[in-house]
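Appendix B. Chain record.
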Amino acid sequence: MDNREDRSHFLDAIFRNDDPKPLLKMVINLDETPEDLIQWINENLFNVYRGKDLILPLYNLSRADLYLGRVYSNQNYGLWRYAVDLMTAGVQLPKNKRHRDIEYSTPSRWYMLGRAKRSKKIGNEVCYKVSKRYNISMKKAKMNALPYIKKLCTDKHTLIGIKKELNLKEEELALISGIKKEYIDSIFKEKTKFDENTKETAIKEKSGKAEQRSISDFPPYIR
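Structure tokens predicted for this chain:
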């Protein structure tokens, strides 16, 4: 059984069952920290409960979060037990209080953190390319060059030129220009199609001219 299945069983034990006894053992056996688990519980709490039924679970979840904060601020890991009890048994309600079937969602906070981390990485790569192209420091690239480049990103032709000048990827150009990546992608799909059509037309024209040439078009030494 992989960790995803273990986590699903754990959430089922909270949201689909009434018995709190196995919950602590499940937390111990899971390859997850209480800090991760509370994010899963918090994300899916609103998929299970409605209205006033949320009051007690949210209160206990907030207390659990408080204990988890004290674990690290005071290095008192004995508080983990209180936090786990509050965030598991403390959010259980009788089955007749549950409103619908549950489809578990990944914590949205993780998506945001992941996007922020990726944006930072892309930003650093862009700064490196700018600093290398114009022989300036990474700091100057970030503080001086990038704001100026962003102001230049006003039309398709400029965007295409900047991408070529700095050897940027579409996602890098989207980041420094502040323009949605979908729009950036559409620009370069359109450009690729235009280039292909232009090349195809040039080949056809060249081929047509070659076919139309007569023997008199060639120099005497070739005839």
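Further analysis of this model is presented in Appendix C.
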